[in-house]
Amino acid sequence: MVREKTILAFDLYGTLIDTSSVSDALRKLGLFETEEEIAEFTRRWREKQLSYAYRRGLMKNYVDFDVCTNQALECVGLEMDITINDYIRTKLARAYNELSLHHDVQSALTKFNLPNFGLYVFTNGKRSKAEYILKYNKIQHVFHGIVSCEDIKTYKPSPDAYEYLCEQTKAKPNNVWLISSNSFDVIGAINYGLKAAFIQRSTKSILDPWKIHPTTTVNDISQLADALI
């Protein structure tokens, strides 16, 4: 009997890709006087981006993730009294396409290069942007494919997103692992019936106390590889 592959679905933004690395572009633009202000702007931008995606999903008023990102940028600019002109907007859009990997990703992914695993990227972002950023970071060859919520015009953590993941990977929910640093994503996956690994790189990264628990919690992707292989 042929053993069914275990599907490992990696969230992109926040899990493989370090969204805080956009701070390098903010620093070069000279918009802020202190590192604390840069960190605050970066944090707010990410939080607002996710908030806009959730709200769009609930309202069934879909726009793609780039629109959520750009509108979040405008909002945080207003909140922090920073004028976001066309030059800044263009520079930051490019920076968001060229975000860096988390430090543990490159070496850890090679550990999963085994015939019993099928590796996918599972993202709220646009497929074209996911393809670009994977190529930019030279890890596109690791994955069997990209599953983008853009195709079904909704966002994680909608159950429809996890159902679509199973359809695209041709796998049963109990044979799919969602791997994410985002609490909402882990909880959404468990709620649907998938297995889920919470990548908790920092003690400040907290799983929401909903009494919905991940299958496992690890400090980085390398530790997950050691646990699953």
Name the beta content range: 5-15%
CATH class of the largest domain: Alpha Beta
State the helix count: 9
Q: State the CATH architecture of the largest domain.
A: 3-Layer(aba) Sandwich
Main β-sheet: number of strands, strand sense, barrel status? 6 strands, parallel
Order of helices and strands: EHHHHHEHEHEHEEH
Structure description:
- This protein has 229 residues and is α/β, with parallel strands linked by helices.
- The protein folds into two domains: 6-17 and 100-228, Rossmann fold (3-Layer(aba) Sandwich); 19-97, Putative phosphatase, domain 2 (DNA polymerase, domain 1).
- The protein has nine helices and six strands.
- Strands 3-2-1-4-5-6 form a six-stranded parallel sheet, sandwiched between helices.
- The longest helix has 25 residues, at 35-59.
- The two termini are 20 Å apart.
Compact description:
It contains nine helices and six strands, in the order E-H-H-H-H-H-E-H-E-H-E-H-E-E-H. It is α/β, with parallel strands linked by helices.
Question: Any key phrases for this structure?
Answer:
229 residues; DNA polymerase, domain 1; Rossmann fold; alpha/beta
